[in-house]
Known about the structure:
Distance between the termini: 122 Å
Strand content: 5-15%
Protein name: Formin-binding protein 1-like isoform X2
Radius of gyration: 59 Å
Largest sheet: 5 strands, antiparallel
Amino acid sequence: MSxxxxxxxxxxxLDKHTQWGIxxxxxxxxxxKERIEIEQNxxxxxxxxxxxxxxxxxxxxxxxxxxxxxxxxxILNELNDYAGQREVVxxxxxxxxxxxxxxxxxELKTERKMHLQEGRKxxxxxxxxxxxxxxxxxxxxxxxxxxxxxxxxxxxxxxxxNATKADVEKAKQQLNLRTxxxxxxKNEYAAQLQNFNGEQHKHFYVVIPQIYKQLQEMDxxxxxxxxxxxxxxxxxxxxxxxxxxxxxxxMILAAKSVDERRDSQMVVDSFKxxxxxxxxxPFEDYSQHIYRTISDGTISASKQESGKVDAKTxxxxxxxKLWLFGKKPKPQSPPLTxxxxxTSSTSNGSQFLTFSIExxxxxxxxxxxxxxxxxxxxSLKRGWSGKMGPALEDFSHLPPEQRRKKLQQRIDELNRExxxxxxxxxxxxxxxxxxxxxxxxxxxxxxxxxxxxxxNNMDRLRMEIHKNEAWLSEVEGKAxxxxxxxxxSDINHLVTQGRESPEGSYTDDANQEVRGPSQQHSHHxxxxxxxxxxxxxxxxxxxxxxxxxxxxxxxxxxxKEGEVLYIIEEDKGDGWTRARRxxxxxxxxxxxxxxxxxxxxxxxx
Length: 605
């Protein structure tokens, strides 16, 4: 099948078909270009999305630690790689498909133009041969008519008797001339006709088939090129499928790496303060005066005694019990009325006083519904840490556990910096040895300032490490000591017929826990034994205030810079030390705000 033989007379149709083929090629090239733009915009939007949700790591504290966050950021990294593969697809299509199509379209246009020009030239040449043949034909026809006219004129004159001989000769000469010219035109026409037939045969059997064959080959190459571009279009996508699959597998692995237990442990590690939970509230027995009143046997005496007991309870027992911030004040007991005391009789007729549970119930309601008197460590820390200003160098403003972690992180960073400086020193020493062996390479003395600077940096880093390790040892020592502490509280139980159970006082130290007498005494000796511990705690050292402290929170003690205070209780690892002024005012002050000096002889007293 050949266009030259089958389509010998369809030059215009082939002209339109080849133009349509090139237009289709350019249309597909335009499609590829728009697809490339889509891929590029898609990759750009993906990168912008990743950039939008990636963390801005301005400091190491903001680095993601939770497995869910790390998995999400790994997914973002994989998505960024996926966007890179979309860019690779766009680049491959642009280079292998679109660029090839545009180059080939330009070549097709040039080749098509050349073939069509050759075909048009062949047609023009054939038309020129046909015109020459037609002109010779027309001229031959005209000369034949003229010769016929000359013959008719000669015959008429020859038959005319009146015609002169000269006219007849003239007509005869004219006939011979026209006949000769007709013969010449006939020969010319025959030659032109033969030439035209030859050119026409050559045109339709040689020239045009050759031109059409070239056009056919050009169109077939265009079709093959389109097929290759289709395949290249798909291959551009298929080449990145393995990498895209790896990106998706990475996302799946990131999802599998999420560990909820580890995240929970990180929450504990991040926010653990290291403080011990507060101890139990002690039971405050407001009914002791009732039992003592019963042993007196008179209501009037019980009223007087109850007034004394309330005063002593407010002062004496408040000093005996140690709370988180100072000594817990006791609410005033409601006054007893005769209605609250009842008289009962035994089987032998003797009478004794009993009491109603209304006062006890009232006191318990006061304890349950009353406003808390002791602030928590968290509220206290918020209260004074906001006034401390910038963070301290030793992180003493932080809870013990967080302080330990911060110090450990700083020590690790300092060790890494020290290792870098050590490596730099070794490199400088090697370079100095090279310069000493080969003076032409450099001056060894030029490295001495840098070596000295490196040594100074190493000394500075060692000092910093030693200082932070000392702080870390201090924190770890306090944490170990804090594990030995315990909080205890004893609950007084109500016993009828004037007998009371032993009462325990709450202290921060197990050695300071004091219990009341376990045997029954008279009401006078009971009051004396219970409130005889009114002396303040002994001083175990002194301290000097390095910074001023306002002490607005309950249980704290305000102090001025340079003020000297007595130490009555050491820091138990919570960052607070109990101190007393010379006027007897007591309270807690931040340990990092004072310079403590303990007396060995009085420490155990």
